[in-house]
């Protein structure tokens, strides 16, 4: 019967494919290192490791999105533990994901094109047109247009 240590070594050798031939990244993961602690070379090695199965460095991409979409600094966004790469999805899993995305997109489209939503957008458009007309008249009379704030100037009121 093979020993547990032997089984672990075999498993580790299998994981050390093209993405991490010398096992550096796996060691960093075992150590619990964080992405923002890595040097630029180590970051590149980690990304190469994560992408070696085609899964991509999802955690790095998510951190970049957090920086773009929120007030997080790079240090805050990239302060995550390193993780092992994921296996790529099977063709069946991929097809299921595509179906789910199609279903979600259809749901979003249906909601956007629903009579209620179309009516809301038309009412908002008419409201903005009226505000524009009133602002133009105020401007032509030499008055302040502040009396007729645009929706995005009203402090979030809708």
Radius of gyration: 27 Å
Please tell me the overall pLDDT. 82
Poorly predicted regions are: none
Distance between the termini: 71 Å
Please give the number of β-strands: 0
Tally of discrete structural domains: 2
How many helix segments? 7
Largest sheet: none
Order of helices and strands: HHHHHHH
The secondary-structure class comes to mainly alpha
Strand content: under 5%
Q: Helix amount, in percent? A: 55-70%
The coarse silhouette is elongated
Task: Kindly describe this structure.
The protein contains 7 helices and no strands. The mean pLDDT is 82. It is 61% helix and 0% strand. The protein folds into 2 domains: 4-88, no CATH class; 89-158. It has helices at residues 4-15, 24-31, 40-51, 58-69, 74-77, 91-112, 115-140.
List the helices and strands and how they pair.
Blueprint: H1 4-15, H2 24-31, H3 40-51, H4 58-69, H5 74-77, H6 91-112, H7 115-140
Question: Which tags fit this structure?
Answer:
61% helix; 7 helices; 158 residues; single chain
């Amino acid at each position: 019967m093979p020993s547990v240590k032997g089984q672990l070594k075999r498993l580790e050798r299998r994981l050390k494919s093209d993405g991490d031939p010398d096992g550096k990244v796996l060691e960093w993961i075992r150590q619990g290192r964080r992405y923002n602690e890595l040097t630029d070379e180590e970051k590149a090695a980690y990304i190469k490791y994560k992408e070696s199965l085609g899964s991509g460095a999802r955690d790095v991409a998510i951190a970049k999105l957090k920086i773009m979409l929120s007030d997080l600094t790079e240090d805050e966004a990239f302060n995550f533990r390193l993780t092992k790469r994921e296996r790529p999805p099977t063709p069946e899993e991929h097809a299921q994901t595509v179906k789910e995305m199609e279903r979600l997109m259809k749901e979003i489209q249906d909601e956007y094109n629903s009579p209620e939503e179309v009516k809301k957008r038309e009412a908002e458009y008419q409201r903005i047109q009226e505000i524009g007309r009133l602002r133009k008249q105020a401007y032509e009379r030499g008055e302040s247009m502040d009396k007729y704030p645009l929706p995005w100037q009203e402090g979030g009121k809708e």
